[in-house]
Amino acid sequence: MPTANIRGATIVYEVLGKDGPWVALSPGGRRGLDEVRSLAKRVADGGFRVVIYDRRNCGASDVVLEGTDSEYEIWADDLYVLMSQLKALPAYIGGASSGCRLSTLFALRHPEAVRGLLLTRVTGGRFACERLAENYYGQYIRAAEQGGMAAVCATEHFRDRIAANPANRARIMAMDPQRFIATMRHWAEPFATGSDLPMIGATAKDLGSIRVPTLVVPGHDKTHNRATGEKAGRLIPGAEIHVIMAEDKDVDLAVEDWEEKEGELAALFIDFMRRAEKRAA
Q: Which fold, 3-126+198-280?
């Protein structure tokens, strides 16, 4: 699988499709590109070139646990550089959950590089903020406090990152635990302070400034509830809101339901982008 050096990190990526407008799709959580390959293949079969990739600290890409921006801002800027290297801009930028945050930040930081947005499972509200702050950062802070970087390497997520890319162990072990803890606390800040925002990482003013065609597909669980997605969609001028799931579930996550809806979601993406291309032409 090809790799690219993106701002000091080796990033694993894949391109599906040989012609047509460019699209980048990012998964939720810290999942790798395998999570979106099937959806990307469906979109590519609809006449698009689709980039999927392992974000830094995810999949088989390098672990680089530092940065003054939030983690999803770092991911957004990484994607911009990757797509620039591939000469794939402007492009449709999309993703689910953390990939949705990444995509939104991409549009806010690099508006000239975006043809349109495909936002799925928007994240917001107190429950999501508290849960994600713990899942993404809190558990690793405690591991470093109790057992240093060796304990961080032993956690499930970073153990898997080392298995996928053995050089990651040396990178993690070389970090000063106190610096690592400070970075994790800094990256957790937007979650600690973002429960009153319409979505994590973006204010109402931010969303109102987006001027590209936007498709919003709300989620249906406690981390990505339907009301959050609909509210974010209403704040983005001209956004189309499509509800796939009939009602919210009283569960933290309902990822498996989306596997059953993958064909419908891909068809929505393809139709939306085809219409956007016709309007642009």
A: Rossmann fold (3.40.50)
